[in-house]
């Protein structure tokens, strides 16, 4: 992967990338795709949705490719897909289940909930006629013979809504995920990649931030060692302070500043940051950029 960063004047910036700029770019990229028109649903449980202009611009393929490239190069995943949709992507048996509540269209959701909650056959038949146009569009309109028939109708409609009507979009998305053979890894290790693709509620801790870095002290008893121990103590106190308070900056802000990531990826950060890398980058910056550090 190759990218160029430009300054406010549009000129290309020359710099050594030891991982930070790449991770920052990929983090911003994953943040941006979450709001694209190809997705619909809750912020942390999104599904693909067909959009004619997006299909014409091949966006489904490109977004799949962006996700694959980001994860393969050590960046984050989108962390926003519905777990039900993710399981469908990795299932060889193409059955699909999702709760009615996941449907973003309020009118459709209301109709399905009424059918699902019908308590008598006569009421179910009445509702089937009321929403006949909606059910016919999905090809699941039928005469209700028993109260139990409502379950299959609701399940069939949900499968049509999320899967069948978006079939072409899903195929192009998967073709994009095949970039760098990522889709095969996804199918072989679904539990691992679930953490990249779907939202999981994890709280960043001081220990998690500290464990990213390997501390290299000077010789015991030296003046430098004493100063380094004091700096490390201040650093840990500051992290604890951020963890306890509920305001900015947060531990996530610190992690983004340090690594270009908002959270520690499941595969950890490779390579692990070292002082030598920082020193090399600073030396390069000062030697090749006159005025480095000035506002």
From TrEMBL:
Coiled coil: none
Keyword field: Ligase, Transferase, Ubl conjugation pathway
Molecular-function GO term, any one: ligase activity
Domain HECT: 1-33
Protein name stated in the entry: G2 M phase-specific E3 ubiquitin-ligase-like protein
Species in which this protein is naturally found: Labeo rohita (Indian major carp)
